[in-house]
Amino acid sequence: MIVSSVQNLWKLCAGVRRLSTTGPIRMADSSVAQLRVSYRDKGDVLLEDNLESKNPHQMFSIWFKKASERDDVRQPNAACLATATKSGIPSARFVLLKAFGESGYTFFTNSESRKGREIEENPVAALTIYWDALDRSVRIEGAVEKIDETESTEYFDTRPRSSQIGAHVSRQSTVISSRESLSKQNEKLEVEFAGKQVPRPSYWNGYKIIPKTMEFWQGQSDRLHDRIVFERAEDAAEKQIASHAGENGWVFYRLSP
Ligand SMILES: Cc1cc2nc3c(=O)[nH]c(=O)nc-3n(C[C@H](O)[C@H](O)[C@H](O)COP(=O)(O)O)c2cc1C
Question: Fewer CB within 10 Å, N side or C side of the chain?
Answer without folding.
Answer: N
